[in-house]
Amino acid sequence: MPGEVSVCKIFTFDAAHQLIGHQGKCSNLHGHTYKLEIVLKGVPSVEEGSSGEGFVIDFSEIKRIVKQSVVDRLDHAFLAMGNEPVLDTLKATGSKVAQLSFRTTAENLSAYIAYELKQAALPVYSVKLWETPTSWAEVRAADIPEAGPSYRLYGGCDHE
Q1: pTM for the full model?
Q2: Residues whose CB falls within 8 Å of the CB of residue 95, separated by 6 or more in sequence, listed in order
Q3: What values do phi and psi take at 71, rounded to 5?
Q4: Which residues pair with 79 in a beta bridge?
Q5: Which of 108, 24, 118, 25 is nearest to 66 (CA)?
Q6: Exposure pattern of 41-67 as b/e (b: 16+ CB <10 Å)?
Q7: What is the pLDDT of residues 93-127, one digit of tens each?
Q8: How far is it, in rounded angstroms, from Cα 80 to Cα 99?
Q9: Residues annotated as catalytic (active site), given as ranges
């Protein structure tokens, strides 16, 4: 669309997960410092004299919504599909668990995040989730069905 501008806000959060049945190191319980890039796209406001004039959306508003919708839930949590042997122990000891009910690959997590942010009415263009400094998964929000993502059942992570 003519006049559209992309804006990006970057977040980090730490979380643990375990990919049961994976044929690699990620079958072990482990953690990552995730880097999350949220790209929004829209036409900047032309409402003359308003505080939002010239903005697609204020960066502080992006921060508030992303933290509330996604980061606060995932940060310093165990990201669970629900089939992890350690899950009952974590819950019993009061550890923070984000029960997501899908395999917690970077691919699935990026789709989940894009969907959650669309539900929060952000003009999301794409979500890129870095699992390591050299490995990421990216999803375009337009590729996420209105009813929610179809999560991949298999896949891995690049734990270095």
Answers
A1: 0.91
A2: 78
A3: -60, -45
A4: 98
A5: 118
A6: bbeeeeeeeeeeeebbbeeeebeebbe
A7: 999 999 998 999 999 999 999 999 999 999 999 99
A8: 5
A9: 26, 76, 131
